[in-house]
Write a structure and sequence with these properties.
Blueprint lengths: L5 E4 L2 E4 L7 H8 L10 H9 L2 E7 L2 E10 L4 E9 L8 H11 L8 E3 L6 H5 L19
Parallel strand pairs: 5-6
Antiparallel strand pairs: 1-2, 2-3, 3-4, 4-5
């Protein structure tokens, strides 16, 4: 089980405590995410149980998240990064990425992976690049 982490900045908190997650708020936010169209609350509730989820909170209100699927040894997949529209443009996405990259259980991984259509500039700030050899990668997509 990954180490619980909680960090604070002004009135905001990032926490990996699964007990703090607001599945209804997450499901509501993800209905507006292009990559999560059609995901049900039940599917979201199930996959957060099997992921390291970084919840972002304004007080007790969940306003963002990011999810890591990992073996905590060699590989991590970063997904479902979302900041509520009312809170964008205040550096919270950058702070969330800094917090994820500094989590003790995610240090020393050989490879991280993510897919994005429109947030390349955010991720590049944290060392992310396009695949060096995309011809070596395959995927199976049932979406």
């Amino acid at each position: 089980m990954p180490q619980l982490l909680e960090v604070h900045k002004d009135k905001f908190t990032i926490s990996t405590d699964p007990m703090r997650l607001d599945i209804d708020a997450i499901a509501d936010m993800l209905t507006r995410a292009y990559w999560a169209k059609g995901r049900t609350r039940e599917v979201i509730a199930r996959y957060v149980q099997h992921s390291l989820v970084f919840g972002l909170y304004d007080g007790t209100r969940q306003i963002g998240l990011a999810r890591i699927v990992s073996d905590y040894t060699t590989f991590a997949w970063l997904c479902d990064v979302f900041i509520h529209e009312d809170y964008r443009g205040h550096g919270l996405g950058k702070w969330l990425m800094q917090t994820i990259h500094s989590h003790p259980d995610l240090q020393g991984l050989r490879r991280w992976l993510l897919a994005t259509r429109d947030a390349h500039d955010l991720y590049r700030q944290f060392g992310w690049t396009l695949l060096d050899h995309p011809e070596r990668w395959m995927h199976k997509f049932n979406g």
